[in-house]
Amino acid sequence: MERWLETIWYGAPPPPWWLRPFSGVFSLATALREGAYRSGWLAAVQLPRPVIVVGNISVGGTGKTPLVIWLVRELRERGFTPGVVLRGYGGSGTGPRVVGPDSRVDEIGDEAALLRDRCGAPVAVGADRVAAARLLMAEGADLIVADDGLQHLRLGRQAEVAVIDGQRGFGNGWRLPAGPLRERPARLERVSAVVQNGAGPSHWPQALPMRLAGTTLLSVDASGRRLELERLRGTRVHALAAIGNPERFFATLRAAGLDCEEHGFPDHYALQSQDICFEDALPVLMTEKDAVKCRRFAKAQHWYLPVTAAFEPADAQALLRRIFMDKRLLDILACPLCKGPLVYDRDQLLLVCRADRLAFPIRDGVPVMLQEEARILESSDPLLVR
Ligand SMILES: [Zn+2]
């Protein structure tokens, strides 16, 4: 079913006539819901701390998760204590909860496990993203990054980043189910920033180009072995991916000169031992999201390729600037030391903690919440009394 739909979504011929009315129904339902939030019939929950949503307007993987990992690292380098919320697709568990080191992949989902292992920040899952975010704030998160949830309007947000897959773009341009779109491309006019992942025709005028970089394979088992991808040039391998767009992974390996026997699975598919073991002894390469599901039964020939989101420095700065563009976000930032409120001084571009007598700078539009970068204020400083 999923494969059949994908040939319609990303194929050249227009979708069959009988499928199109369903897209109309879907569009209407989405429009009504969005209208209800805009007009106040349905109320979004505004949390006391900033929420940044990283999502997409189409179905399937677009590279959101590596972007979330990148963003969390950038925020942490600037002194923030972010927490990550996501629905936890592919997991069987219910109810919001914080992901622990021992949480099982089949309960929390592959993406949550990957984020836990890579972010260095607390992660919470739950269909109710508001409740999940509150759990993280109770644990000290002063900013929430939501992985996916552009359409989860109940979670109020101060910034939105939309990711487009450079290769697939908007597919055939139709809404679900005749096409891959959950919303019209015009939705991108209202987000803080658009990021295009990977090469391809430009799908959005101001999109910031991102690429996924990875050159070193790691063993899926716990042995910690490493293997440079370059060393497998010209080698025949099994390439395996249960992600939104398996072709992107296969293309990466082919570009590195590998001779791939390709095995694509549906997104979030629960890989079992028999799916990753073959009659021959060829190396088996998979994505990082697949590896978290295979650790228990991996053998010596199983490798995964961790990828990292990469931007040109100017684009990275532009992305962060756009995220912090909405001054309402600055108004609800917390002091990294006492977790108390900050006063945003528009004239001097400072965030002032009156309790700690510190002024944190905003550089090139991005707050720097590091104690060593903050200015210590005299008790008579006008910033403290104004
Ligand atoms: Zn403080």
Model description:
- The mean pLDDT is 92.
- The protein contains 12 helices and 20 strands.
- It folds into 3 domains: 2-212, Rossmann fold, CATH 3.40.50; 215-306; 333-385, N-terminal domain of TfIIb.
- The strands form 3 sheets. It has a 9-stranded mixed beta sheet, with helices on both faces. The protein has a 6-stranded mixed beta sheet with strand order 10-9-14-13-11-12.
- The chain starts with a helix and ends with a helix.
- Helix content is 28%, strand content 22%.
- Helix 3 runs parallel beside helix 5 (110-119) and helix 5 (110-119) crosses helix 9.
- The longest helix is centred in the N-terminal third of the chain and has 19 residues, at 20-38.
- With 386 residues, the chain is α/β, with parallel strands linked by helices.
- The structure holds zinc ion.
